[in-house]
Amino acid sequence: MVTSRIKIKISVEKLGECKGELVLFLAPRTVNAIVKALPLEGKVATGKGNIYFSIPVKVGVEKGKTNIKKGNLAYWPQANAFCIFYEDSTTYSPVNIIGKITENLEILKHVKNGNMVKVEKTA
Fold it and tell me: Can you name the CATH fold of 5-113?
């Protein structure tokens, strides 16, 4: 059984780490699939106000949104990608909101295309 809030750590190559949480009720199927796939890592791409990277999870749109708040964590079904928003944004296609950053969001503004990022569960 997955708890309703899963604490995670996001480590960014050369920049440090931030903390966040995945929140089950926001998109239960998506969050469960991502938790099962943890730890995740990949090379990031930068978008407008966000960073994202492909993950080995395939889930459809679940409570999809296109207006995203700063600090939100999301899954982008169209690209099978884990997204982290460091600014309020509007996305091209719906994303599933899956959680939020709780500490150190500022480092994400300095991420460059190709930086390695790792997402893992914490206690």
Answer: Cyclophilin (2.40.100)
